[in-house]
Design brief:
Helix content is 59%, strand content 13%. With 191 residues, it is α/β, with parallel strands linked by helices. The model has no long low-confidence stretch (mean pLDDT 94). The protein binds thymidine-5'-diphosphate.
């Protein structure tokens, strides 16, 4: 299975993907590759402040092309499971929902890249204020970033909620273990 996990920053993707990877290996006796984006050009992308949304889009797609070729496709071809934090819908949610690029235009650019489609997509839905307070603790952000970052996260979160085809987990009323139990019970339906 090729599984993607999406959600705003601070929604708990890394924690859940770690647990899920161990669970899948045990449950299905199949090696599981855990990975995330941005992957190849991570430092360039995360370090490039103030570039245009279109440049950002192209960097994320170049990053994904490397990721697909070097990690995701080889893993699938070798019969492994893949769990990937962030994928095509991060691009729609951030570059369109967050930064205003045209959705149908970006969808058609992504489609022309012919990246493999996930078998299962999991969305960790969480209140942006709660997620943002977690991110702030992690990075010790200043006030300016706080207001810009929170409004961005609200737009991204709204956009994620419009996407179809997801196992959606509403995380805020649940602890980490409850979220994980919900994910595995939903995944059992696909196994
Ligand atoms: P990261 O520190 O990895 O955050 P997280 O742990 O929440 O994934 O930073 C990745 C950032 O890149 C995150 O803010 C979302 C953003 N992003 C996009 O804007 N577009 C994309 O296509 C992807 C994959 C990520």
């Amino acid at each position: 299975m090729f599984i993607t996990i999406e959600g705003i920053d601070g929604s708990g993707k890394t924690t859940q993907s770690q647990r899920l990877s161990e669970w899948l290996e045990e449950r299905m006796h199949t090696k599981t590759i855990r990975t995330y984006e941005p992957y190849a050009f991570r430092d360039v992308i995360l370090g490039s402040k103030g570039i245009s949304p279109m440049s950002e889009l192209l960097l994320f797609l170049a990053d994904r092309a490397e990721h697909v070729n070097n990690i995701i496709l080889p893993a699938i071809i070798n019969g492994h499971h893949v769990i990937c934090e962030r994928y095509n819908d991060s691009t729609l949610a951030y570059q369109c929902g967050g930064h205003g690029l045209n959705v149908s235009h970006v969808k058609s650019i992504i489609a022309s890249c012919k990246f493999p489609e996930p078998d299962v997509k999991i969305l960790l839905d969480i209140n942006p204020e709660l997620a943002y307070s977690r991110v702030k603790q992690r990075h010790n952000l200043n006030d300016k970033f706080e207001s810009e970052g929170l409004s961005l996260m609200k737009r991204v979160s709204e956009f994620y909620r419009t996407l179809a085809g997801y196992i959606v987990i509403h995380c805020e009323a649940m602890n980490e273990s409850d979220v994980f139990a919900k994910i595995t019970s939903e995944l059992e339906k696909y196994i």
